[in-house]
Amino acid sequence: MEKPAGTDSTVTASPAPFEPIETQPEERIQRSLFGEILDWMLVPLLLLWPMSIAITYLIAKSIANQPFDVALDDKVTVLAQQVKEVNGKVVVQLPGSARDILRADDIDNVYFQVIGPRGEFIDGDRDMPAPIDEEKPLPWSVQFRYDMMRGTEMRVAYTYVNLRRARNAAQASNAPRLALVQVGETLDKRTQLANQIIKGVILPEFIILPIALALVWFALSRGLSPLAELQRRIRARRPDDLSPIDSGQVPEEISPLVRSLNEMLERLSQTIQIQKRFIADAAHQMKTPLAGMRMQSELALRQTSRDEIHRSLEQLSKSSESATRLVNQLLALARAENQMQHTVSFVPLELSELARNVVQDWVQTSFAHRIDLGFEQPGHPVMVMGNPTMLRELLNNLIDNALRYTLAAGSVTVRVRADNEDRRAFLEVEDTGPGIPQAERSHIFERFYRILGSHVEGSGLGLAIVREIAQQHGADIDIFTNPRCHDPRFPGSLFRVTLQMKPRPVFIDDIG
Asked: Do the domain assignments include residue 190?
């Protein structure tokens, strides 16, 4: 293992550099990105196409109505100018030729009607419906409406003619005498013109729509081609190639995906390197105890004396115990490093209680080594956030390290302290051993590192495990010379692990 001696030194364990990888359950139904985008583009396009046809038809009807309404306005105005009152009788002074022109139309049926002031029929088509006006419009103001005539819809223009000729002021004050004049025509010409406009607009759309669909298909294929190229480049990689993907050759929208893939590849590469290093170290470290066990077993087979066989078996037992301890520490180190790659569940725990339970597990071992193992704690709970299993492993390795390097009749003390102002908790393990030289303090947390000249058995993994667990908890590790040791030959060591205390609850009284 490793051990104490020298002046003060501080080793800071920074928080784990890796973030947890969030994984999503694999979808059973794979959806095509190309088909998804195509659906979202074509479905609205195909829905808007009939809507555009309907809107175009309405606009075409409005455009077709305008010139025919102007002609209908002229007809009703001309007819109204021919309505006169002669000797108190309403007459229409319309020559036959003019009447023929009024009705002349190759396509539409044209109707007209003149109604006197008292509602009496004057001229035209008797069955032509009258307008429904709550208030009669001003004389000579032409109005339009849709109506039915003999089961056929028609467009009607109508106006009112004031028959009273004011010759003096008295007559001007009398109420006007209004005659209704209206001209209507069926909608065949209007519909025909609207259909012609629709055909002129819709027929090009039937040609444009397939072209638009083909362009959309081509644009999507070209737009998604970088994804296909990225897929081809990834598939062309060797299985052991975990180098970053060049994000300069992909569109901006795919860059976040490529960056995420590169981050994942980096984490995967680090994990693989850790595993390779662990396997290599484990294989290297297991060679020595296994070779010793083989040698002792072969030696025991060659011995004939019971005493010699017994000594060989004792050495074999010690080698197997050493190999077992090495395997356990390798597994503990692997667990600690693996926890850094994944989310660690932290829970509130009382540090004094955890340390006291760990110390009790080492009492018998301390008796066997004739070392005084002590425990000190404050008179109040010290609450921290952490993983109980990993913190027990950390303290176990610190105590084991202290007991191995402390001579018989020495002492090892485990201490829990708290700084309530800075909300920090301290877990300390001090011993009266030979201490750690100042030059060695920056190396003792390296895996399999052993101080030269140390004759204590160990694998050099204990403090490496402590460092990994401290990093996992975002804790600091400080190394000092034991201030209670006064023998220069045995200055002792003090390992201090600094953890953040659990934030205390804030009450309303504290805020005021």
From this structure: yes
Please give the pLDDT value at position 103.
65
* Distance (Å, whole) CA 75 – CA 149: 18
CA-CA distances (angstroms) from residue 510 to 76, 292, 418, 420, 505? 91, 65, 21, 16, 10
337 and 411 in a single domain? The answer is: no
Number of domains in the chain: 3
Look up residue 494 and give its two tokens: 């003090």
Q: Look up residue 227 and give its amino acid.
A: L
Q: Is residue 115 part of a domain?
A: yes
Q: Compute the distance between CA of residue 282 and CA of residue 413 in angstroms, rounded to an integer.
A: 32
In a domain, 234, yes or no: no
Is residue 36 included in any domain, yes or no?
no
Q: Worst-scoring range by mean pLDDT, 142-146, 173-177, 219-223, 229-233?
A: 173-177
| The dihedral sign for the CA sequence 127, 132, 136, 137 | negative
Query: Residue 383: pLDDT above 90?
Result: yes
Q: Is 208 left (phi over 0), alpha (psi -120 to 50) or beta?
A: alpha
* Domain of residue 65, residue span: 52-194
Residues 475-501 pLDDT 10s: 999 889 988 888 888 889 999 999 999
Q: CB of 114 within 8 A of CB of 180? A: yes
Using a cut of 0.70, tell me whether the model's pTM lies above it.
Answer: no
